[in-house]
Amino acid sequence: xxxxLSDVAVxxxxxxxxxxxxxxxxxxxxxxxxxxxxGIKEKNIGEAVYLVTCNRVETYIASPxxxxxxxxxxxxxxxxSGLKYDDFKDNLYIKYSRDAVSHIMSVISSLxxxxxGETEIVGQMKDAFxxxxxxxxxxxxxxxxxxxxxxxxxxxxxxxxxxKNPISIAFIAADMARTACPDFDSKKALxxxxxxxxxxxxxxxxxxxxxxIIIANRSVHNAEHIAEELNIAAKAVLLDEIYEVANDVDIxxxxxxxxHYMVTSEMLRKVMAARPNHxxxxxxxxxPRNIEPSAAEIEGVRLYNIDSLKEIADDNLQSxxxxxxxxxxxxxxxVDEFFEWKDELSVTPVITSIQxxxxxxxxMELERYRKKKLKHLSVEDFAVVEELxxxxxxxxxxxxxxxxxxxxxxxxxxxIDIESLKRKTRFIEEIFTER
Length: 435
Fold this sequence. Notes:
Radius of gyration: 29 Å
CATH topology of the largest domain: Beta Polymerase, domain 2
Strand order of the largest sheet: 7-6-5-8-9-10
Largest sheet: 6 strands, parallel
Order of helices and strands: EHHEEHHEHHHHEHEHEHEHEEHHHH
Distance between the termini: 31 Å
CATH architecture of the largest domain: 2-Layer Sandwich
Shape: elongated
Number of domains: 3
Strand content: 5-15%
Structural class: alpha/beta
Oligomer: single chain
């Protein structure tokens, strides 16, 4: 791999490579992103976008020294988790260049999701990209890559049926609640968190006909506003009131971004002691988890986390595989388009240098002739001459520029090594520019 030009890489964990217990070690709270990106800058990683969802933690980088960038991201993971590389290396995947670009486009097109065809990942990727832009961690390569990936996702969504009747994590969580609780229309649910995921869970719980819904949120006003927007009758309380309302519910679904457990085992033991013979279903779709894992040991409690939903997601897989194969064709086209752009980018300075030199000569000679031999021409006639010189310049430079681009495109083949490309590039540049 040529390390003389900037390349891209992805370093991360997903639901296939690591359990939720491992993934949550590398998750960060929303108010820590500025600190995270400061750490990325201090490590000279280059361009970087950090993505955290319930199914994955990934860092996308672009760097002239991509191997050093990958090592720096691994050190960053050690700092975030308090773990040593040896503790998580078996869960970590690292992809470079074309494999990395293909992976990013597969992720944003939901081909690498737990739920094939889910639609939430696009919003999550856009949010991660926006955070990186805000923290000045995105440059030319990642900016182009992410916009190319957004284009690929749009094509997959519009040109295939992979997202037809989309099934999401929120959908599966609500469906699991319905399955776990017979007489669903007489049950009461407590939804902790009214963010993007919580909003979707609320929508599906109402659609399935849950008897009553309580929303616990940092802002009661926001929770009430969301329920009103969805035309759903729901009571809103503050997060501090979870214990009081939990005594009377049948289902708890959590999706809060928080650095600590929102529901502890101690809290649940008190709740269950006050309601013997009244089981409680807990569905935790947050990463990091909102419910203390040891809660599963409490009598009468059934606890499901994000990884528990995988079996239901797998049932959805077969019906979408044929559409996934079509989607992969769109992804491959966009990967090719990105690398064609990237390959041309590497010779752009030389092309610009040649074009600028020719334009300088053209303008200088025209000015000289305008003052002497062509001074009798009208403004309109001189404009024709000027246009003619532009056309001559463009056609003269066409073959050298096309040859430079072709040489760059073939540089990855066995017949042309990168040093040969550099020599040819320098030779062409020196023919047309002063030294």
